[in-house]
Prior knowledge:
The complex is a heterodimer of chains A (408) and B (177).
Chain A: E1 2-4, E2 7-9, E3 30-33, E4 37-44, E5 53-54, E6 59-62, E7 67-70, E8 80-85, E9 95-107, E10 115-122, E11 134-141, E12 146-154, E13 157-160, E14 178-186, E15 192-198, E16 204-211, E17 222-229, E18 237-254, H1 257-260, E19 269-272, E20 277-281, E21 292-297, E22 304-308, E23 319-324, E24 332-336, E25 345-348, E26 352-356, E27 359-360, E28 363-364, E29 367-372, E30 380-384, E31 393-396, E32 400-404
Parallel strand pairs in A: 3-19
Antiparallel strand pairs in A: 1-2, 4-18, 5-8, 6-7, 7-18, 8-17, 9-14, 9-18, 10-11, 10-17, 11-12, 12-13, 14-15, 15-16, 19-20, 20-21, 22-23, 23-24, 25-26, 26-29, 27-28, 29-30, 31-32
Chain B: E1 7-12, E2 20-24, E3 33-36, E4 40-44, E5 51-56, E6 64-68, E7 79-82, E8 86-90, E9 97-102, E10 110-114, E11 123-127, E12 130-134, E13 146-151, E14 159-163, E15 172-176
Antiparallel strand pairs in B: 1-2, 3-4, 4-5, 5-6, 7-8, 8-9, 9-10, 11-12, 12-13, 13-14
Amino acid sequence: MAWINNKHETLSSTSDTMDTTSMTASDFGVFLNHGIPHTSQSTDEDIQDETWTSNGSNQIQAGTPQYVETVDATAYPETSTIYYDIGTANITDTWTLKAKMVISNFSAGGHSHGWWWHLGLSSNTSHGNSSHDGIDIVIHNSNTYQRFMSTASNGAAVSWGSGSIADSNGDTDYLDDGTYYLTLERTSEANYTCTIRTGSHSGTVLGSVSGTNATGVADLRYIKSSTHKSTSASGGGGKYRLYDIDLTTSVTTYTDEKASITNVTSNTRYEETDTRKIYSFNSNAPWTSTNWTERGDTPSGAFRGVFGGGSLSSSQVNTMDYVTISTLGNASDFGDLTVTRSLLAGVFDATRGVFCGGRSGSTYHDTLDYVTIGTTGNATDFGNNNTDNAYMAGCSSDVRGCYGGGWR
Amino acid sequence: MGSYQDEISYITIQTLGNASDFGDLITAREQPAACSDLVRGVFYGGSTSADIDYITIATTGNATDFGYNATEGSAKGHAGVSNNVRGCFTGHIDLTGIDYITIQTTGTVSNFGDQAVQHDYVGGVQGGGRGIFGGGNNSSNNRTDIIDYITIETTGNSVDFGDMSESRDSLAGVSGG
Lengths: 408, 177
């Protein structure tokens, strides 16, 4: 987001430029750069329809619609693998692997030493217990333990995510036949989460398993399903059929917004809100690309905070009062909300604050009202929430305010 | 009889109008706290959940797991502030602790410090690297006019800022200038 006096425009990528053609020299004032990462995302959908490679008849790609299936997880241990070559060995940024899994013919193992089924991203095409870099969803089946789990492998070292996930039928150690929605997400270099749902990918969460030990796990080139077992394992079985296999990869880049701003005149001022550094455009040739010189730091705290609503001992209030954030002192009267209420949420951009929902007595409100933060006065109607709701919390970008949770 | 909600709604702040559906929190709950770095919004804890989940504000969709508030558990009544890098939360019912997260780094909640004087069910405002918490209930469960502040970049205890115009709790804060 860049601000030019009271005008603003969002720059969404490093190649984006600011349209300044309709502005005069007097418009060029302060640019604010939040110095934040920009994430570009791409999703490869229905990967089960692509060409997978199997090392035997236990792992197959078949059907209409097409699926990838482990025919019998215990019949062909140790060497059973099917994989899809993503084509790049450098998926080291964040990614999400999703699949719908139908389990049938499941039976518990007959020995305390069990077998494992894996689905995940891997650096090689060997079975899941071999040496590789990888992050996997795992099903463990023994005579006492049938659960979803997750694991990260960094070369020879294998570490498990915390916890495990069982089905929701109350027989907590048994994974029943049925349809499960699997999400395996790498949220940072170190962190990953496996979430199992029923109904859909936004359905009921059976549970999540998270790991914080994926640092160094790299070169994830293959989506791989495999099985292996302990030498003492016996009995048990299961057919695992995977549909709707999607892989979303995210690449984060850090945009220097001032490098993408063109058509600015000399002496245009630019402020980075994260570093508080000030730059000026010192080019003697206007309408060319960037040429910024650092001019020191912005003063801290040229901002105002407005508190709105609340409860006294037995009633709610419409009070708003404000503080100047950079200056210690008591709050001053700002004005009144349109509706008396407490337990409301607030969202805001650089100039406007919006108070959302809330409750007064037993009445819940769908009220949205706003203030111009730099100017005292009463709030004005903004619109309505989807429902009457209170006990929410809000967060904001420079453009959008989001609020969620609550009670009604 | 009411129920806990998982809905997330959104508005375009400079455009008057009704809210639109954004998606759902992972766990339905009341009284989470929230903050953002202008790209990612984080919903922190709540009355029935110690979950922390996040959204990408510019898109719509359901929230994603961020981590778990092992420090405070399923705390409620708190408020969140940020300096667009770090998010700080305090005002958990009956607790004085201040926690923080790095908004772009999932998984970890750390201790920031303690409130100068206990107050929960607070409102939070922010700016210029400073986070300010106002109002709430004190340790005797009476409404208070306390305002204290932290420097978000630097861990430590909060410091007295001043007083609210009246003692009240369960308020909200907005910030700008």
